[in-house]
Every structure is written in C-alpha cells, then in structure tokens.
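Quick one, T. Sequence first:
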Amino acid sequence: MALAAIFVLALLPRLYSAQALGWGWDGPGSFNLVNFDEGGSCRAALDGFSYSGFVGHQTIAIASALGMPPPQGVHGESALAKAYCHSAGHILVARSWSALLGALTVVIVAVLCLQLLPKKPAVAWSAATLLALSGFHISHSHSGTVDAASTLFIYSFIALLAWSLRCGSRGGLVASPVLMLFAVWTKYWVFAVFAYLALVPRRAWGEMFGGCGWARLTALVLALSAWLASVCNVAYPAYGVLPLLLLYFLLVPWRQVHRRWALAWAALPLLLWLGTLLEVVQAYTVGGLESRFGSGYAAIAENKWLRNLVNVPALLMVSLGIPACLFIPAGVRAIAHGEGDSRLWLCLLPLLAFLLFMAFLAPVTYYRHYLPLLPAAAILAAVGLHATRWGRNRWLLLVFFSWPALLAWDMVSDYHLDPRRELRPWFAQHGDARVFTSFYVNQPPAAESVLFRPEYATGDAAILRRGDYLILSENWYDTAFANELNGPLVLKQDRLIKTRPEYAQFYRQALAGEHPHLVVEQSWELAHFMPEMLLHKRWYGNVQLFVGDLRVLRVRR
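Structure tokens:
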C-alpha cells in the first residue's frame, strides 16, 4: 500500500503536466510543441534521426494501438518522421508514457532501498518521496524524451541485481542482462556494466586495493580522474599532466596490493590513454571545436573544469532542495562507516562512475544528462537524514518534504506560465509589424516573421533595419552568458559553447541596451520564489532548457 501511495503521488503531477502543456495556446484544440527535443527516439525508430530508437518503438506501438500509426512511406524520410513524431497525438502518447515510467522510477527507488537497508524502511519511503516531489524529475517525466525512461531502466537493473545478491537468486542474476540491455540501449548509458563489479568476491577486492582506507582510495580515484580529464582537454598541456600521473603512482599502495594486481595498477593509465585515442571516446570526452551553431563543446577548454564541478551541486540543489542536499554528506559518511551490506552498495557503482564522468570528462552538460544521478542523491540524502537524530524530529521532517514540494511548484510552473503564450496577444496588437525572431520563440501559426541571424545586425545593420522588432529567446541568447554549458567563467568569448565571439558580443550589447539600432521595449520573465531558483536565475539563468525569458527589442533606424 505504501508503494502504491508513492506511485500515485508521483504519477499525478507528471501525468497532469504531460497532458496539459502546449494545448490551447492558439484556440481550443490547438497544440504547440514546448520541448523541441521531444520525439527524438520516435524519429530514430522511423530512420529519420541518428539516435536510439528503443523508446520510440514503444511510443509508436502505443500510438498505433490507439489508432494513430505512422503514415505510409515515413521510414527513412526525416521530414515526414519529424512531422509525425512531433504531432499532437504522438507527443501526448510519448509524454504520458514518460510520466508513467517516471512515476515507476519512484517505486523502483523504494524497492532498491529496501534491498540496501531492509531494516530501515524509513530510508526507502524518504528517498522515494524526495524523488516523487523533485520538480526536475517531474519536468523530465512529463516530457516526451528518453530521459525518464532511461533512468527507470537503469535503476530497475540495479534493483534487480541488488535483490538477486541479497536473496541469492540465480534467476535474478540470469535475467539481469536483459534489464542491463534496456539501460544501455535507451540512451547508450554504458556505465550500467559497472554494476556487475558487485559480483567480484570480497577477497579479490582486498587483493586489488591492498586494504587502503577510504581517504587514500578517494584521493587515488580523484587523482586518476583529474589526470584523465587533463588528457581529454584541448588545453591540457597547461595543467601539468605528468605531476598528476606521478601523484597517482604515489597513492597506489604498492606494498599492500597483491602482486597479481600491481601490473594492472601500473598499466591502468596507459590503457585509459589508449582508450582516449578512439574516435568514439573522444566524441564523448573531448568533443569538437566546431559545430553548425559556431564553437563546439571542446572550445570551452580550461573552463570545463569549473563548469563540470559546479554543475553537479547546482543541479542537485535545484532538484532536491537545500535541506535534502545538506544531508548527502552524512549519507556518504554513514555508508563509508558500514551502513548496510557493502556488497549491495557496489551495485550502485555505475552511478559513481557516471558522477566522475560528469564531474571531470563530460563535454556536453545539459542538465537533463544528469538525471540518473538524482535518485542516487535522494537515496544518500535519505540515508543521511535517518543516520542522524534529525530523522526523528517531526518538524524537521515537515521541512524536509515540504521544501522540495514548494520547489517543484516553483519549477514546474515555468511550463504552465510559459512566456511564449504572451506572444499571442502581442502579435495581435502588432499585426503590421515586420518581426525578426530567434530560435524557440514559438510564435502564433498565422504570424509572419523572419528567423534572425546576428549577421543581420553587423556593420550598418541594413538587414536588421528593414524590420520593426526583434524577439529574442533566453534559450538561444543564453549561450552568451553563464549557463550549464558555459559554466560561470564567460569572460573569454572564444570559450563559449554553441556560439561565436561576435554573436555573444551582439547578444550582450542588445540585451544591455547598448546596441545602436536596438532598444529593449518589453520583456516577459519567469518569476520564482524559492531561493534555489532565484540563485540559479541570478548566476546561471533559467533551469529549464526550452522555457525561458523573452525580450522584445524595437529596431531603431
């Protein structure tokens, strides 16, 4: 009954938003796509996009069973595939399916906690409730992307493996590769394979690490991660790769490590370096210097260090709330001191490997990519809460769960109060105006406009001066400012991602009212009241990828 109650608590807000967003903007029955990343797996399933089609096959099958199959001849035709996958009918199915899988993830997290700490069911209910109330998880569960589905399959696989180890079920171990395949296939999440390290006997772990303590082991992992991050950075010569490598060799407990493992420790840096030479590995660790939007992900260079290390705590803060995050260190400490069966905790090694990847190596750092970390953080927060006396304080528990609920309201309301809805009356009042718009503006279907390029405003701005207004979307101009892709350091404009220095300079001038041919006339901004959202808005812009502020600039001739 507790699992059923938590499932309902999780499902209701996710399903409501999934079926409510984008409807009625342009009259009864009208539909506007809110998130342009939705339906990507569907397009891949129809051979119209390069991506994993695993979830797309599922949503297409459901839509077809409901009488909305893809039209004939759509396979291999990218335009037709996109039109079908972005249609109102399919998006409604994809979002509802994502909402269901997101709610099931909450249940799976509770089940996983009951395997990890069977004598502390309060941890399971607390972790699951935290995830159910997470505005960030709600936001991605009501979106027709693969992120919620990927997280479900990841934790379903881990929960099955943990249950199999705790109960000694060979059947569970035999079946686990199926769920691992789902976890990998949904979004190419290869980290899932690390969970099988939990099957390594305790004696082998002792021989491998030589009995070194947590402090030494942590320093060893961080040194190796920092060295690898330097190798996978276009600016790495400035960071002294050799000293980091030397530090790694100094930290390995050579005298305690069994000699059969000594060669493995010595060869590990060489093997990792050889792996980084593979093109596919470079794509996911370094990225390219150029893209069709300007600079590529590798252009961030040395700024990548701070960005990656800032993004992880920033995302957890806005996802779970400050009170929950304060208990995460206590959860880590409790596990390090022997809370629960250490072998079962090893089933979560994929999340640790993924955390290190996102903190040190990842070139692409959209917040949605961090979603698999969120349930693990909720578990750590719950463990930390109930490892202290605060877990028995009713008033603290009230704050602990009320806070993320208010935070979720503040975050998810961004979608329901989407500033793009305000463009409907604005275009009606400016019917004869000549308007330039940027990406993600999402104007009324009957409105006429021209897609803006910053080149139109260079020199004497002859092309720009042909228009009357320019409407800019934060989701596009934020490439000129600090955000989850650029990090907090944005002084060097050649280090900004998905833009060009001249583009960034234009956006900064235009929004500051310093451009000679543009005047900021009107703006529609998202309003927040929770400190996490206010802080993020101040330093990193809006949390959501496709919902942000709109600025209307009048063209001066």
